[in-house]
Specification:
Elements: E1 3-9, E2 14-20, E3 23-28, H1 34-42, H2 53-72, E4 81-85, E5 99-100, E6 103-104, E7 112-115, E8 125-128, E9 131-132, E10 137-138, H3 141-146, E11 156-160, E12 165-171, E13 174-181, H4 183-193, H5 209-219, H6 224-227, H7 230-236, H8 242-258, E14 265-270, H9 274-285, E15 290-295, H10 296-310
Parallel strand pairs: 1-4, 4-8, 5-9, 11-14, 14-15
Antiparallel strand pairs: 1-2, 2-3, 6-13, 7-8, 9-10, 11-12, 12-13
Helix pairs in contact: 4-8, 5-8, 5-9, 8-9
């Protein structure tokens, strides 16, 4: 595919991009995530029928395509859309079954749904589902995994930072297993909705990196549920101020996630604000490992493209 639209629709985020020859020409992101769209559908008045759910979600995509067309100055209604993330979840447009692990990165066997264009959305739409093991699930990361050409010949662990972080274990081109860590959500709960909220204040990582690394170091000395209370005592005893404590808490929680990493190669697939924290924490825990940084956006686009081309989407006329 040369010209197409990439849709990454997460729980709280929405990103629609115009792609031409693997380059992003334009992007819109000011539309609601899946959770809010699902909430709006359930709370609509008068209540909407279950049969109207698909069109409710499609309308969001339609509006985003229209806005992207205005922004880019191009007609986009004939371009295919390749989507991944929470769009295929139980709270999304259409729930799709998970594909099982392991994943062969050269020949991935995924679940998907192809929708023809109609009056509700002229664009043909491909929805890519997620993957699961007996104990874990992912939606969206599998697409970035498939699009990360750098990892095809690597053995090690691929780390996806986020609200629910993933560690994917790779060997000889096979993603054999993965684990989910509720790192981002736990940090939010502690910093916003616990007794610790009065002991921390959002701060710049670069300015307070020293205290972040103190948290990473301390996370290796005991149990997180005990150590995290020290955030309060450090404030009570005036050992750290709230800005310093914020980074210390972040270091404790991220450190508790990465402290058990043992692979010789750690691949960090990330973008945005968490990249510096994870890079610092992983290098602190495993200073002698090979560290590889992978651009999450580019991996997503290349993964969506690879999947679409392998299943011949859109079909040739």
């Amino acid at each position: 595919m040369q010209n197409w639209l990439s849709l990454d629709w997460g729980t709280t985020s929405f990103r629609l991009r115009l792609i031409e020859n693997d380059v992003i020409l334009a992007e819109v992101s000011d539309f609601p995530g899946i959770a809010l769209v699902n909430q709006n559908f359930n709370q609509s008045w008068p209540p909407l029928a279950v049969s109207e759910r698909e069109y409710f979600f499609l309308d969001v995509i339609f509006q985003a395509v229209e806005k992207l067309a205005q922004k880019s100055g191009k007609a986009l209604s004939s371009l295919p859309i390749v989507s991944s993330g929470m769009i295929s979840s139980s709270i999304g447009l259409l729930e799709l079954e998970y594909a099982p692990f392991p994943i062969n990165l050269d020949k991935p066997d995924l679940k998907y749904f192809m929708r023809s264009g109609d009056k509700n959305l002229q664009n043909e739409l491909l929805i890519i589902s997620g993957n699961s093991t007996d104990n874990d699930v992912m939606r969206g990361e599998e697409t970035m995994l498939i699009g990360s050409w750098e990892i095809k010949k690597k053995n090690g662990v691929l780390v996806f930072p986020g609200t629910h972080c993933k560690h994917v274990f790779l060997e000889n081109g096979i993603a054999g297993d993965f684990k989910t860590f509720m790192t981002g959500e736990v940090f939010s709960l502690f910093s916003d909705n616990s007794i610790l909220s009065n002991s921390v204040k959002a701060s710049d990582f670069r300015k307070y990196k020293k205290f972040f690394l103190e948290g990473v170091a301390d996370s290796r000395l005991g149990e997180m549920l005990n150590l995290v209370f020290h955030v309060r005592t450090k404030q009570l005893f005036k050992k750290l101020n709230p800005e310093e404590n914020y980074q210390y808490l972040s270091g404790l929680i991220i450190g508790s996630e990465v402290k058990n990493l043992t692979a010789e190669t750690i691949m960090l697939i990330c973008g945005g604000s968490l990249e510096n924290q994870y890079k610092a924490a992983i290098e602190f825990v495993l200073p002698d490992a090979e560290h590889i940084k992978i651009d999450a956006t580019q991996a997503l686009i290349m993964g969506q493209k690879k999947i679409a081309e392998e299943i011949d989407f859109p079909g040739k006329n």
